[in-house]
């Protein structure tokens, strides 16, 4: 389940926030079952929400989709790379903290 939560972020490419909705449902359904799962739930949800917020913020700061298009492939590579790494680490049973959002969740 923890690996699937990290892979939910890939759903955000189809419909924004659908991956975060999947993580929120998993948090509601299985939240508090184990500290291991709770940690992966918080990390996955925080990354997905921050990714969508960052994308919307970049669009607002740069004036819309047209100026944000050059950043899209870079943001997509970062999101896919982080999600796949997190899923692999969760599959191996190891904890994982996203490099850009881990500090935000600990505050």
Walk me through what this model shows.
This protein is mainly alpha-helical and 107 residues long. Helices cover 71% and strands 0% of the residues. It has six helices and no strands. It has helices spanning 2-7, 18-30, 35-62, 65-68, 72-91, 102-106. α3 packs antiparallel against α5. The chain is elongated. The two termini are 25 Å apart.
Keywords:
mainly alpha, 107 residues, 6 helices, elongated
Roughly what percent helix? over 70%
Tally of separate helices: 6
Morphology call: elongated
Kindly provide the radius of gyration, computed on alpha-carbon positions and rounded to a whole number of angstroms: 14 Å
The largest pleated sheet is described as: none
- The counted number of beta strands is 0
How large is the share of residues in beta strands?
A: under 5%
N-to-C CA distance: 25 Å
Helix-strand string: HHHHHH
Overall residue-averaged pLDDT value: 78
**Structural class by secondary-structure content:** mainly alpha
Low-confidence stretches: none
Topology overview:
Blueprint: H1 2-7, H2 18-30, H3 35-62, H4 65-68, H5 72-91, H6 102-106
Précis, in short:
By secondary structure, this protein is mainly alpha-helical. The protein has six helices and no strands.
């Amino acid at each position: 389940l923890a690996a699937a939560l990290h892979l939910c972020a890939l759903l955000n490419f189809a419909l924004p926030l659908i991956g975060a909705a999947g993580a929120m449902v998993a948090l509601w359904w299985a939240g508090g079952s184990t500290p291991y799962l709770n940690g992966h739930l918080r990390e996955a949800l925080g990354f997905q929400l921050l990714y969508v917020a960052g994308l919307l913020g970049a669009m607002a700061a740069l004036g819309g989709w047209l100026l944000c298009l050059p950043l899209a492939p870079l943001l997509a590579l970062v999101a896919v790379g982080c999600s796949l790494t997190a899923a692999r680490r969760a599959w191996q049973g190891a904890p994982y903290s996203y490099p850009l959002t881990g500090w935000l969740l600990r505050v």
